[in-house]
């Protein structure tokens, strides 16, 4: 049985008096999770009250989460989501304007622990340089979400050599530079 579910079922269904020895020892080993409240939709600055099963509060964990490709799409939504949960968020994007826009939207939610850096994640030297700036100005990054990516909407045989290299650089090779910082 899954320990978390086991302890939760045990603690909800009955107390330890009626348990077998084995059940009682599991109950002790896996105590009920701490109470989590208030509900997310009652908390200020929450953009997605319905999007998570668990009302996390990342501010207590002092997390600094860096999201690449934060200027648009999934990266933007992740940056906003992490910030709304209380993490410090470092936004990276090749597009300075949209990246700053994400940062400003987060600030408008009353979350000021947000930073924007322009960076092309396929450029190894630039990644290392910007990472150094982040370390100096923000501190160590706890979690990196290297989300920046691109697609080429063409059949493989119709793609030029440059297009193929660009897509592989951003979707594959950038992970090596980003995870080496
Ligand atoms: N959207 C989907 O349905 C989908 C499905 C599967 C996987 N993905 C992956 O998820 C990731 C995000 O997808 P999306 O739809 O949000 O993309 P998107 O095109 O909406 O946003 C990508 C962001 O990455 C930035 N970016 C592009 N090249 C960059 C570079 N070299 N350096 C730094 N930033 C760069 C862009 O400026 C943009 O802000 C991608 O890696 C994509 O391959 C998306």
From TrEMBL:
Region (Disordered): 11-49
Gene3D superfamilies with a match to the protein in the record: NAD(P)-binding Rossmann-like Domain
Database matches in InterPro entries: NAD(P)-bd_dom_sf (IPR036291), SDR_fam (IPR002347)
Pfam families, alphabetized: adh_short
Gene Ontology molecular function terms on file: oxidoreductase activity, acting on the CH-OH group of donors, NAD or NADP as acceptor
A cellular component annotation (GO) from this entry: lipid droplet
Protein name as annotated: Epidermal retinal dehydrogenase 2
């Amino acid at each position: 049985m899954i320990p978390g579910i086991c302890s939760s079922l045990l603690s909800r269904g009955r107390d330890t008096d009626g348990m077998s020895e084995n059940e009682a020892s599991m109950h002790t080993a896996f105590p009920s999770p701490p109470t989590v409240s208030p509900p997310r939709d009652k908390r200020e600055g929450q953009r997605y009250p319905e999007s998570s099963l668990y009302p996390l509060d990342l501010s207590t964990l002092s997390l600094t989460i860096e999201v690449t490709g934060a200027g648009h799409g999934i990266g933007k939504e992740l940056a906003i989501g992490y910030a709304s949960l209380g993490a410090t968020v470092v936004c990276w994007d090749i597009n300075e304007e949209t990246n700053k826009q994400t940062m400003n939207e987060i600030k408008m939610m009353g979350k000021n622990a947000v930073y924007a850096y322009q960076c092309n994640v396929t450029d190894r030297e630039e990644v290392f340089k910007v990472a150094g700036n982040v370390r100096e100005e923000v501190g160590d990054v706890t979690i990196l979400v290297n989300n920046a990516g691109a697609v080429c909407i063409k059949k493989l045989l119709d793609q030029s050599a440059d297009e193929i290299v660009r897509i592989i650089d951003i979707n594959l090779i950038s992970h090596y530079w980003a995870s080496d910082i």
